[in-house]
Structure formats: C-alpha cells, structure tokens
Amino acid sequence: MQLVPSAPAKRPQFFVAVGASGVAGLHDLRDLLEALPADLPAVLMIVLHRPSNRISHLQQVLARRSALPVVIPQEAEGYRAGICYIGEPAAHLSLAERSRVHLIGGAHDRYRNRTVDLLFESVAAHAGRWGIGVVLRGSLSDGAKGLASLHLAGGATMVLGSGQGAASGMPRNATEYDGPIDFIGSVQEIADEIVRRVRKRQPVEPVTLA
Q: What global pTM score does this model have?
C-alpha cells in the first residue's frame, strides 16, 4: 500500500486588533494604516466608536491612507492576512472560531463605547498568543478590559504613549487597568513593532499565572 503524505499543518496567523474613538482616534488609525506595509502578513481588525443610527464613511476615509485593502466583511466569511477589516456602525466586528468573521448586532447603540472590548475579548478567545491588541486615542475606558483579557491569553498588548497626546482616556485607562502593557510608543513605533512581531512569525511567549 502506498502511503500518501499528509498535507503540512497550516501555520497560525496573527490577528492585530486596533481600537480608537473620536476625531483624535480616527487620525491615529489613518496614521497607523499609512505606516503599515501592503504585504503585512497578518489580519488587521479595526474598531472606531460610531453611532449605530448614522451612515458611516469610515471605509472610504481609511482607504485613502491605507496600503492595505479596507474591507467590510460578511458574517462567517474567513479572515485573510494582508487585509484591513472594519464592521458597520450597528454590526460590530469580532473573531469567531476557525478564523471566521462574527458581526455582533448593535442597533440602538446597544454596545456603544464597548465595541473595542468586544473585539479584543474575541481575539483573546480565538487567537490567544497569535493576537495583538492596540489601543489608540479615545475617551472613556473601552479597550482596557479586553486588552487585559488578551494579555491573560498570551497575546501582545500595545498602547499609544502619553507623549503622543494620549495622557488620558482609553490609552491611560488601558495602561492602568490590569496587567503590564508589552509596548508603549508613538503610532509609527507601534506600526514598526507590529511589523517586527508578525514578520518574525513567532507568537508571544506563554504567560505563566501565579
């Protein structure tokens, strides 16, 4: 009997989840996308707080500065590396099993100002050590809890530094919430660190809990 060699196991891919809010956060997102290369070997997932009852032009705004395609996916679609994904104002982006898209219904602002946590917690659950969470500028504390969950799952955590106009709001709350932040820097420095990590193709070392 002739043995048929098995197909090589598919290597895990990185999921980079980024959260921001407000005009300042939008500027950060645009700068980050401009700094990331077109051949980024990772899935990029972006959440920006938006009212659920208004038409959004976020896709077009981000695409003007992004070397990566900016896509609004469909439910259960498979995520692909080298693409930037965003949700709709009332259909919030998250990661499901087997690297699939899950859009969480958020009509009537059901998850207003909690959508970054939703994304980060899904990446923690389904990507673990292959997840990277990034908090950019925005008010309030969205992202802090989700970033802590990602840290506990073994993923990497990054926050915009206070010297970059982020002395309060989301970056500060994420930094002070629970657990250390792996990297703090400018938008350009964060972009460089994302590229460095994903091109090494090595996940974050497992976290040992006391």
A: 0.90
